[in-house]
Every structure is written in C-alpha cells, then in structure tokens.
Design a protein that fits this description.
This protein is α+β, with helices and mostly antiparallel strands. It has three helices and three strands, in the order βααββα. It has helices spanning 30-37, 41-48, 68-78; strands at residues 27-29, 58-60, 63-67. A three-stranded antiparallel β-sheet has the order 1-3-2. α1 packs across α2. The chain is extended, with a radius of gyration of 19 Å.
C-alpha cells in the first residue's frame, strides 16, 4: 500500500508576508555587491567602514547587506561623462 503524505501548505522561502520590495530596495550580500562593482570583497569592506568612497550597509546579525539603490547611487557618483 502507498504511504499517505500530509499535505502542508508551504510558504516560498522568500515570502515574508509583507509583500515584495521594489527592486531598488532589494538587499544584496557582500559577494553580490562586490561582483556588481567589480571589486574584491575586501575593497567593499573598506568602503563600508568609511574609507573613500563611502557605501552604506545594513547589518543583519553578523552579516552585512547592501541596498541596490545605494549601490546604483555610488555607480552614478563614479560616472565620468554623460551619455548622449
């Protein structure tokens, strides 16, 4: 005879119940942020600790997260010329 399995409603792992965040408010991990900026995680750590340039972060437990809007703002600060 086949086994019966309890069907329990499972939530998606990213579903926290407060609705989706806008893309610019999403959080990135340190390795993700370093990849976007094409720098090392050590360089990112220096920027987070206040050495030039300054990149704000959110501390959650022992790890840091970076808001996409802050990363995009930093990229704009580095922009040299304007696209035509």
């Amino acid at each position: 005879m086949g086994k019966r399995r309890n069907k329990v409603a499972r939530q998606k792992p990213d579903d926290c119940g407060i609705g989706p965040f806008p893309p610019e408010k999403e959080l990135l991990t340190a390795p993700q942020t370093a990849r976007v900026l094409k720098i090392t995680t050590r360089g990112l750590s220096n920027w987070t600790r206040g050495k030039r340039p300054k990149l704000p972060s959110v501390k959650i437990g022992k790890s840091r997260r970076y808001i996409v809007a802050d990363v995009l703002r930093l990229i704009e600060q580095f922009r040299v010329g304007k696209a035509t």
